[in-house]
Amino acid sequence: MRCIMKLHYLGTAAAEGWPALFCSCENCQRARKVKGKSYRSRPQALIDGNLMIDFGPDTFYHMMKYDLDFSKIQHVILTHSHTDHFYATDLILRAFPYAYYGDERKMTVYGNEKCHWMFLRTLEVEDDSQNMRDCVGFEEIRAFQPFQIPGYGITPLHAVHDPKEECLFYLIRDEEGKTLLFANDTGIFPEDTWEALAGVKLDCVSLDCTLGNDPNMECGHMGLKAVRSVVQRLRKMECIDKDTPVVLTHFSHNGNLLHEELETETKEDGFVIAYDGMLLEF
């Protein structure tokens, strides 16, 4: 029997959260009224409780909200340097005296050149711990250069997001061959990424849908129109079939649609609309 991969969505909003921190627009007011699954924190996910995707400013909140022990996390992969995805200052809290025994369970963060610079700046400017270098390390990675961590093979892929850095998303395969494509913070994939996906059979796809049903904002993120285009191409390439779970996440108030509205809008597509705390097994 093949193993099950567990994908836990801890946060499913874009940078501003939803309702946004300082916003009183109609969409934020509607979210404050209905609450529930339309209340969204900043993006973060866990695979099998072991591998963390992104390390944003809501990490502490996610630990408390879902009763998680992050002292056990030893591997974090970053998509890019924007602070909703990488809040480097909190890495200091893994070291003494903010935490004990962090040097026995050293955590490694994997990210691009800009993330590496932010990590080094944190060490130089902000670190007031006694042993952060013993508790947290950083490995700089590049698109299309696969690497291994215990239990997983990971291939970074090119994202279309911020032209000032090499933004990434990930193809993640466990030891049993179960394969996840996790694509936050990207527009429609660039051609080099499509080429890398040729011949890859995916068991689950998680896609950025920041822009919801807004047809006028397709730069560096996707909305429903772009998502449908990506899914169509993945099916044409036989990377996925009609039974492959396709999950949408990373929603902004600029995308207009609350959780139940997204479910209604995508009912015929068969998409899964992620919400904070959702656990998907495949």
From TrEMBL:
Domain Metallo-beta-lactamase: 50-250
InterPro entries, sorted: Metallo-B-lactamas, RibonucZ/Hydroxyglut_hydro
Organism superkingdom: Bacteria
Organism: Parablautia intestinalis
One GO molecular-function entry: hydrolase activity
Protein name in UniProt: MBL fold metallo-hydrolase
Keyword list, A-Z: Hydrolase
